[in-house]
Amino acid sequence: MIKNYRNIGKIVSVFGLKGDLTIHHHLGKKTSLKGLKVIFIEDKKDEMLPYFVESIKIKNEEEVHIKLEGIDTKENARKLLQKETWLPEADFQKYAVKSAPISLVGYHVIDDKKDLGEILEVIEQPHQVLCRLEINEKEVLIPINEETLQKTDQKNKKIFVSLPEGLLDIYLA
Question: Which domain holds residue 118?
């Protein structure tokens, strides 16, 4: 997992002739990302490159047009299409609303090599994220924090955790 960074969305298109990009974000609100100085773009799996922001304009509820330093042509911009975009945790907290649908929805939670099921909802808390699953037709909340999270496999949409002993028994007993 890329620690201290949060996935906010993906570059979905090139806009105009001067290399502007359209980012589809999951911040849960219309935002101009006012004051954002740098955004990270995933170059390869678990490798991000920082790009300095020249300007950002709101397109709609879930999209912004962004101009990045050094990306001045449509051709250069196309190289970034479909790349995941990330913010440092502090910036994510500044721009996202608490109910923002984050990228873990749809991932499978793996505890001790056992697939517990698909994340149906993500609930953000001040010090952790709770992932809502259904196991044996019962609702289960799995805490995701520094102690429980082992790694995230984005390619296969899996999140590996080490749950406290007895946690599942509380829900399933």
Answer: 108-172
The tens digit of pLDDT for each residue in 45-82 reads: 778 999 999 999 999 988 999 999 999 999 999 999 99
87 in a structural domain: yes
Phi and psi torsions of 65, nearest 5°: -95, 130
CA distance linking residue 25 with residue 69, whole number of Å:
20
Low pLDDT (below 50) residues in the chain: 1, 99, 101
Does residue 25 belong to any structural domain of this protein?
yes
Cβ–Cβ < 8 Å for 110, 98: no
Whole-number Å distance between alpha carbons of 113 and 93: 31
Q: Quote the strand ranges of the chain, DSSP E.
A: 5-15, 20-25, 38-44, 47-60, 63-68, 84-88, 108-111, 114-118, 121-124, 129-135, 138-144, 149-153, 158-161
What pLDDT, on the 0 to 100 scale, is given for residue 99? 45
pTM: 0.60
- Residue that is last in its domain, among 95, 126, 158: 95
